[in-house]
Description:
The protein has 616 residues and is of the alpha+beta class. The protein is 50% helix and 10% strand. The strands form four sheets. A five-stranded antiparallel beta sheet has the order 1-2-3-4-5. A five-stranded mixed beta sheet has the order 13-12-14-15-16. The protein has a four-stranded antiparallel beta sheet with strand order 6-9-10-11. Helix 17 (389-404) packs antiparallel against helix 18 (411-423). The radius of gyration is 32 Å and the shape is flat. The two termini are 54 Å apart. 39% of the residues are buried.
Amino acid sequence: xxxxxxxxxxxxxxxxxxxxxxxxxxxxxxxxxxxxxxxxxxxxxxxxxxxxxxxxxxxxxxxxxxxxxxxxxxxxxxxxxxxxxxxxxxxxxxxxxxxxxxxxxxxxxxxxxxxxxxxxxxxxxxxxxxxxxxxxxxxxxxxxxxxxxxxxxxxxxxxxxxxxxxxxxxxxxxxxxxxxxxxxxxxxxxxxxxxxxxxxxxxxxxxxxxxxxxxxxxxxxxxxxxxxxxxxxxxxxxxxxxxxxxxxxxxxxxxxxxxxxxxxxxxxxxxxxxxxxxxxxxxxxxxxxxxxxxxxxxxxxxxxxxxxxxxxxxxxxxxxxxxxxxxxxxxxxxxxxxxxxxxxxxxxxxxxxxxxxxxxxxxxxxxxxxxxxxxxxxxxxxxxxxxxxxxxxxxxxxxxxxxxxxxxxxxxxxxxxxxxxxxxxxxxxxxxxxxxxxxxxxxxxxxxxxxxxxxxxxxxxxxxxxxxxxxxxxxxxxxxxxxxxxxxxxxxxxxxxxxxxxxxxxxxxxxxxxxxxxxxxxxxxxxxxxxxxxxxxxxxxxxxxxxxxxxxxxxxxxxxxxxxxxxxxxxxxxxxxxxxxxxxxxxxxxxxxxxxxxxxxxxxxxxxxxxxxxxx
Length: 616
């Protein structure tokens, strides 16, 4: 298979802002000069430790250690090959790639073909919505308050009733049956391959970057024996436990709102109704309950690193809706954001609420929200006769476990008082039962936790920034490496090379210095990341930290000036070391010998150099 020319690989990377690519999946905010941070997409965390430096095109997580460039990010997140990652970014830029030996572009690989098949299917469905056969589908939308503009905004389409209309259309475009089966848009039966969606209204399901990865389809005809809603099956690119419908449209307002708020509704039409009513942060799951994987995706988009954010769940007022709310509550502690529940009057869902009472009523749901804990407590109290002592005691025991789960030590006493008022009981009794419930939950958790596996293998020492000695020498060396990696391309190259000549005193920093000093061109885009990847173990992680840690300066100009100053200090330190060695040598060589005179001349040169660098 022809390879992309290295010059093109480098050019595409240099033209791509890694913060734009990462920012499609992770809410990033400033973390100092030239650095941005957010919640790591590679592991679950509550506080952001994932840093991106657009200037050097590099990311690094101080929590799990994942690091790399824009290509490695795409490969890890989307499970694509290196070639696919380059081609995808080149496509975004409109850049024409060239291949070695003049070869043609290789065939697009499997995952890309699945994305392409889903995109082609979405276009097909949208076109079918305009046909005469789709009158029922258009009437369905109209009866729910959605006009042609709304359908176009959300990409809604129609799957014709025929056996294989879409199959024929997409095979005519060059897609194989295996590709369409892999994309989940057709199915295999005893009579052969046929359209999975037939006679249905179809919503494209997109990932957070806006790529179509699947579909949700609602039946329209009474003779359809299938389920009310039919979704794409699990595929390589469609994992329903990780997909939130509407997130591609809502992510911008979710991440930039004050407060940052996500509204979780139950269906596609509810998302549409909310967005059209002005609640543009509405999202929904796709045929599955809201779970832990959805939370991870949502938290990264929210930048959920503080308690200022809000997640509002809207549920039907029926029993199924209440059960869904309690399932969401069971995952509440995975959020840093405050969680709320909003139930519309008469138990209407947002779509029906908009139809019956207008856009303002949908927006008003946000004002009627109640904290998730309060909602959960009220649900626990249902079924108990609070007019009797037995009912009060039973309700207390049932609801105490809810209050005991509140981690915030300032919130828990308040909810104890809320529970006491609901029950008409003494707050001290409620407090005692909550404490008992908390101790019981803690003991159960400790019992479930398995002991850590023991191993006889010696631990590999890990060198990190915090483990470096706090000495003056190490501080200068650390600052020098940090400045060289982050801003070395902006300082005088001859001075930087001179500063990197002399060995460092700390072994870990010395290993990194050796690697940087060996780089032939420190002005090339991506050189710092390549250098970090070349550092020998166990010091590579430290090199990544030095590349990604915020540089102690007010702005970029100050950082460049500081790097230049550190370079001069390292040169002066090297000259002082050489002078010390010369003074010892002079004592051992006759003063009137050629060697003695040469040593004294070099000593004078060193003093002159020291003076020059000290004053510059």
